[in-house]
Specification:
Helix 1 runs antiparallel to helix 2, helix 1 packs parallel to helix 3 and helix 5 packs across helix 7. This protein has 8 helices and no strands. By secondary structure, the protein is an all-alpha fold. It folds into 2 domains: 67 residues; 115 residues, no CATH class.
């Protein structure tokens, strides 16, 4: 119950920051981040997942986009996509678990699902970036570098996903309880 209150406080602070920066910079599209912030509460996502979601959103969207760390720090974009590649593995496990498709004896199926799911979410994110650039005249995909930025983002997510998939495979094949199995117990 305590984590729920912490998540609510984090969400409130983030919404306040977003509204302040949206007004201060006259950037209405930033208000879309408020929708992102409230989604885990609307869908009643578990507190641990909500906390990861909020922290990642703060890092990727607020620090990266609003405070321009993507432009100021050369490695920030690579880092966020790598982290997403890893975190999307947890999201894939959540989908497998909720759909009752998680199959402990068939680890290969789980690894393949995680791998494909992560790449699919990375591709969908790049489509989202392209759409925002096109409809709201933004430059999330850095038009000057175009395909290079998109491919670099997907490759960084791929490396994060490979790390997650190998960790998952190791934990289940060697019957070790590390990060991933602990997460599975919380969902």
């Amino acid at each position: 119950m305590k984590l729920n209150k912490i998540n609510a406080l984090i969400a409130f602070v983030l919404c306040c920051l977003v509204i302040f920066f949206a007004i201060f910079y006259k950037n209405i599209t930033l208000l879309l981040f408020c929708i992102y912030i409230i989604l885990p509460f609307v869908f009643k996502i578990k507190p641990v997942i909500t906390l990861c979601y909020l922290i990642f959103g703060f890092i990727a969207i607020f620090l990266g986009a609003q405070l321009h760390l993507y432009k100021i720090t050369s490695w920030f974009d690579n880092m966020t996509h790598f982290i997403w590649g890893f975190l999307s593995g947890f999201l894939a496990l959540l989908v497998l678990n909720k759909s009752k498709m998680f199959n402990t004896p068939n680890i290969i199926f789980n690894v393949v699902f995680i791998f494909i799911f992560s790449l699919a979410t990375s591709a969908l994110w790049e489509i989202f970036e392209f759409s925002l650039d096109y409809f709201f005249n933004q430059d999330m995909q850095r038009r000057a570098t175009g395909v290079y930025d998109t491919m670099k983002d997907i490759i960084c997510a791929l490396f994060g996903n490979i790390l997650f998939s190998l960790s998952f495979y190791f934990e289940y094949k060697e019957n070790k309880e590390l990060l991933i199995k602990k997460f599975m117990k919380k969902i």
